[in-house]
Amino acid sequence: MEAWKEKIGEAALQEGIINDPSWLEKLDEPMPVWVVLQLMLKLKEQLETNYISYD
Description:
This protein has helices at 3-14, 33-47. By secondary structure, it is mainly alpha-helical. The chain has one domain. It is elongated, with a radius of gyration of 15 Å. 0% of the residues are buried. The model has no long low-confidence stretch (mean pLDDT 88).
């Protein structure tokens, strides 16, 4: 496997995007649509601003 893919996988593991080190051996496998959607929803949730306006 290419080093750049391993680096991305290790970063995802450290950031909690993936939580099972066995995924590092499966980085070239296809990903089900539901997994992609779950990741996108998680990202959207993290990017949404949760603040109260002072106005």
